[in-house]
Amino acid sequence: MDKQNTALVLIDLQKESNFGLEMKQVESNAKTLINGFREQNMPIIYTRQINRADRVGLSLGEPLNDDGTPYYYNDANGSIEILDSIKPQEGDVVIDKYRWSAFHETSLDLTLRSLNVKNVVIGGVVTDGCLLTSVFDAYFRDYNIHLVKDICGASNEGSHMASLMMMANWIYNIKMYDTTNILQRINGKDYHAWEPEQVDSLQFTPENMREVFKKIN
């Protein structure tokens, strides 16, 4: 992986707590990953999901509070801000978005291309929503996908597992790592990554889902 054409894209690692996500390990791993990219002077891009309190541009059916304001990512409170321990620094890029995919009507693709990025190292939350749609859209734009599994999370384990396996099955150039191994790779050391041997290689049912999921670890 060429450091000159690689960027880290962090999807929605924000203070929003209404999903009930377990973020402690995600946040810790993301901090380690960010520090590793900073040491190599490699680009770091954050995305923020934002729902306007006045509901302008709000997605159809978006959950609302009793007062009519958005339940998730309400821009009238601090839930839209990046977690303090991993907040952007000078030189980082922050992309605000109003739909799940980080590519939908944002400057993310333009930013990546202006940085000559071909390899997108990506992770974030939620696995079955904003991350999933962003990863597919990155693939459709011909980026090489390097997914960091242990900085991802969803509101329930089944959706998290299913989403990772669907990406593994249908994003043909995907490689999946944990934080340690992606850092090993960008530092030119031996690393382990899972990648598909063929299309739709992870055949799973409700009964064997957990066993099949072990294959991408």
Characterize this entry briefly:
By secondary structure, the protein is an alpha/beta fold. It has helices at 24-39, 108-114, 127-140, 157-170, 179-186, 209-213, and strands spanning 6-11, 44-49, 93-97, 119-124, 144-148, 175-177.
- Percent range for β-strand residues: 5-15%
Rounded to the nearest angstrom, the distance between the terminal CA atoms is 21 Å
Q: Overall pLDDT, averaged?
A: 97
Main structural class? alpha/beta
What summary fits the major beta sheet? 6 strands, parallel
The poorly predicted ranges are none
Named CATH topology: Rossmann fold
Strand order of the largest sheet: 3-2-1-4-5-6
Oligomer: single chain
What's the structural domain tally? Answer: 1
CATH architecture grouping:
3-Layer(aba) Sandwich
Helix content bin: 25-40%
* Rg calc: 17 Å
How many extended strands?
A: 6
Total helical elements = 6
